[in-house]
Amino acid sequence: MSRTSADDAFVVFDRVQKSYDGQSLVVKDLNLQIGKGEFMTMLGPSGSGKTTCLMMLAGFETATHGEIRLDGRNINDVPPHKRGIGMVFQNYALFPHMTVGENLSFPLEVRGMGKVERESRIMRALDMVQMGKFRNRRPAQLSGGQQQRIALARALVFDPKLVLMDEPLGALDKQLREHMQFEIKALHERLGITVVYVTHDQGEALTMSDRIAVFNDGRIQQLAPPATLYEAPENSFVAGFIGENNALPGVIEKLDGDNALVRLANGALIDATAVNIRENGQPTTVSIRPERVEFKPEMMPPDAHTIDAEVRDVVYMGDILRTRLRVAGSDDFVMKCRNTLGQTRLSPGQQIKIGWHPRDARALDPVTTQQGSVN
Amino acid sequence: MSQALDPHAATVAKAAGVEPGPRLTTADGRPLTRALARSSRKARRRAFLLVLPLLLFILITFVVPIGQMLQRSVKNDGFSANMPQISAWFAENPRGTEPDEAAWAALAADLQQAARDRTIGIVGTRINYDMAGTRSLFTSAGRQARNGLEPPYRDAILDIDARWESPALWSIMREASSAYTANFYLAALDRTRNTQGDIVMAPSERQVYIMLFQRTFVMSAVITFMTFLLGFPVAHLLATLPLRKSNLLMIFVLLPFWTSLLVRTTSWMVLLQQQGVINDILVWLGIIGTGQRLQMIYNQTGTIIAMTHILLPFMILPLYSVMRTINPSYVRAARSLGATSWTAFRRIYFPQTLPGLGAGALLVFILAVGYYITPALVGGSSGQLISNMIAMHMMQTLNWSMAAALAALLLASVLLLYWVYDRLVGIDNLKLG
Q: Which of A201, A231, A261 is the last residue in one of the domains?
């Protein structure tokens, strides 16, 4: 996707900084281009600055420094009601004293639209979310999922080019959330709108987005499509935040182009792909996805290094067998084995040798204590 | 499809359109409702016992006195109980009958008996309510009659005082001869009965009550509006400021609440009087001359200023409690949907504060309608309210029936207001805090 050039980008954050107290920066030097029609997700733990970015884009917070452009126009000084951006709030923010129809009518009325035009748009928007029958209900008479649909319809009824969503599915139960993810994604594709979506749920981000910006500590840690983010994280934070991850601390023994040989704390050598390390002797954290770890020699590349591991326990999860191993002095190394016919059943205490393809092990920056891997 | 996937949808739909199912029974066939009532009876009895002391307290200190007051407004036996014979004559002879010798004889006997029983003063006071200057008429007649009067009684009584012949006096005595009467209510509405017994307007110099009721309601409405105007922004600030600052502000709001009513009222006197602080500052600044000092107290202005100040917390607190629960994302949503900040306030924020506003306005208005001390102290003559008139009848004229009638009318109008509010807004929307 070559949507990143600043010229044809629809939304541009240009060197944006934000501070609330004049002492510390919540958003540090944010540069981000969002293409027209793109589904961009801002993903990060709470306090990482993602919601602040969304609020600056919506106009409820002002950027302390830098410029935000929408469709080529600087909107730093444009008040929220003139930005023409649809927004879905975390708690839906449906006006409790108005019916569903009146809620949808509100953005059209403040735009001075005639009654006939309003009616047809309201019906169209309600049909779009399959809520046509609920026009005269009050928000309090609707379930969470229904309120969510109405909030979506209200944000779309005035045909905004850009829609912001602030953790819109956070209050729904799992089943409903997955269904709504699918519906929002389908709406996005059908209407061709640009969506900026904020969430702390990585699963949600991976399934819905064109691109994901992973936020931490006021910066974008990595900006990439979901598959790249999962398979090729660029630093330890992203590797730990997205999906399940094994982090093995070590030191670079030998660097040969992209290939790195890493010596672990117990002296064992492993193969890895060098990502953001520069020289021999540098400390590193090697990141390996649990489903890419193999214990059968025939599944590994012929010349791969293997290391010793001791099986601690095996958790039967139906589709996979989640095996916890003791590797290089640490007890939390996880290996996921597909539950196929004839799969070798490991038992606790068993000594095995594990290995992987060097491309699947990524030598990243060393994990600092504050980051820690998120399993 | 979409609804099947939404587990809450079915519940909500059911709640919206309730269908009465077949009568349910328990496992052994008894009606479910009766079984439920039995199982919860013990808990209900315990709950009732818990509130019983309060119930008795309210009954003794509130319901009974108010009942007595209401009874007093229609019952006054000051004349009928002490003048039984003439009262009997009034009952036998229809209105318009000229008093015959039997009537005068009955009157003479009653005067004699009342004088001996020393109840003639009560009788005089009762008649004096309706006709000024008649109390002495009764007491002096009683003095003379104590030793017995000689027939013909008409001449004997007229010898004491010729005013006994007045048809107006006989008409009033006829009205007073029955213990139960609506005349106090008529008087409270500036109406009276003429000698034919028809309801007519009271003489213009005695027409005060309707004007006072009007003034009370108009001033209470003005005060309510002023508390809304001043209280709304304060309540909004309280609800939106960070906790530390809003706590400080809350103390400022409550400070007058904790100060004695009398102290607050007198400090307004200090501020507002003609030689007071505000006038001094205005003169010192040269805005007004020494001879043009403003009259801001001992009139309606003073009453409105002081009562607005005193009743302000009753507006702010309910408003605050409602505003605190309004999520700021509503206004944000309105703004993002294209509303200017004024439109967002008018159409989204303000309507959501209505339960608090309604509660505050009702509270302030009802309190203002019955307010007594402040108008008595700073109201002068033009700032007196109906409550001051009730107090006057309680303490000076001792016409308790009149005071009770006025108070009952006030109570009725407040209840009416409450009913109107319930019809318009719904009392369950009331949020007091």
A: A231
Flag whether A374 is in a domain.
no
At A372, the amino acid letter reads G
Of B97, B190, B249, nearest to B405 by C-alpha is B190
Are A336 and A323 in contact by the 8 Å Cβ rule? The answer is yes
CATH number for the domain that contains residue A117: 3.40.50.300
A53 within domain boundaries: yes
Tokens 């409790």 sit at which residue?
A96
A170 assigned to some structural domain: yes
Q: What is the CA radius of gyration of chain B?
A: 31
How far is residue B208's CA from residue B202's CA, in Å, rounded to a whole number?
Answer: 10
Q: Last residue of a domain, which of A205, A231, A257?
A: A231
What pLDDT was estimated at residue A294? 87
B352 touches chain A (CB under 8 A): yes
Across the interface, whether the CB atoms of A179 and B5 are under 8 A apart is answered yes
pLDDT score for B430 = 67
If asked whether residues A274 and A183 sit together in one domain, one would say no
DSSP A141-182: GS-HHHHHHHHHHHHHTT--SEEEEESTTTTS-HHHHHHHHH
Instruction: Work out how many domains chain A is built from and give that number.
Output: 2
Rounded distance between C-alpha atoms, residue A219 and residue A215, angstroms: 6
pLDDT lower than 50: segments of chain A: 1-4, 369-375
Across the interface, whether the CB atoms of A143 and B347 are under 8 A apart is answered: no
Query: Closest-CA residue in chain A for B4?
Result: A176
The fourth-level CATH superfamily of domain B209-429 is MetI-like (1.10.3720.10)
- Asked if the Cβ–Cβ distance from A80 to B335 is below 8 Å, we say yes
pLDDT at A34: 94
Q: Is the pLDDT of residue B279 over 80?
A: yes
Contacts of A86 in chain B (CB under 8 A): 336-337
- What pLDDT is stored for residue A7 in this prediction? 58
Own/partner long-range contacts of A170-178 (Cβ < 8 Å, ≥24 apart): A170/A90, A170/A199, A170/A201, A171/A90, A171/A91, A171/A144, A172/A144, A172/A145, A172/A148, A173/A144, A173/B7, A175/B5, A175/B7, A176/A144, A176/A145, A176/B5, A176/B6, A176/B7, A177/A204
Q: Is the previous residue joined to B152 through a cis bond, with omega within 30 degrees of 0?
A: yes
> What range does the domain containing A303 cover?
246-364
Q: Does A168 touch chain B (CB under 8 A)?
A: no
- Whole-number pLDDT of residue A3: 44
DSSP secondary structure, B71-139, as one string: HHHHB--TTTTT-HHHHHHHHHSPTTPPP-HHHHHHHHHHHHHHHHTT-HHHHHHHHHHHSTTHHHHHH
Chain A hits for B348, CB-CB cut-off 8 Å, are 95
Say what the pLDDT of residue B16 is: 46
A338 three-class SS:
strand
Q: Which one of A79, A89, A183 has the shortest CB-CB distance to B333?
A: A89
CATH number at residue A275: 2.40.50.140
CB-based contacts of A116: which residues, under 8 Å, 6+ apart?
A: none
DSSP B22: S
- Is the reported ipTM for this assembly greater than 0.90? no
What pLDDT score was predicted for residue A371?
42
A123 touches chain B (CB under 8 A): no
pLDDT tens-digit series, residues A256-269: 888 888 888 888 88
Note the Cα B115 to chain centre separation in Å.
39
Q: Same domain, yes or no, for A139 and A71?
A: yes
- Whether the per-residue pLDDT at B5 is higher than 80: the answer is no
Is B242 part of the contact surface with chain A (CB cutoff 8 Å)? no
Tokens of B220: 């209470």
Residue A3 within any structural domain of the chain: no
Same structural domain for residues A221 and A253?
no
pLDDT at B10: 44
Query: A259-264 and A162-166: which strand pairing?
Result: unpaired
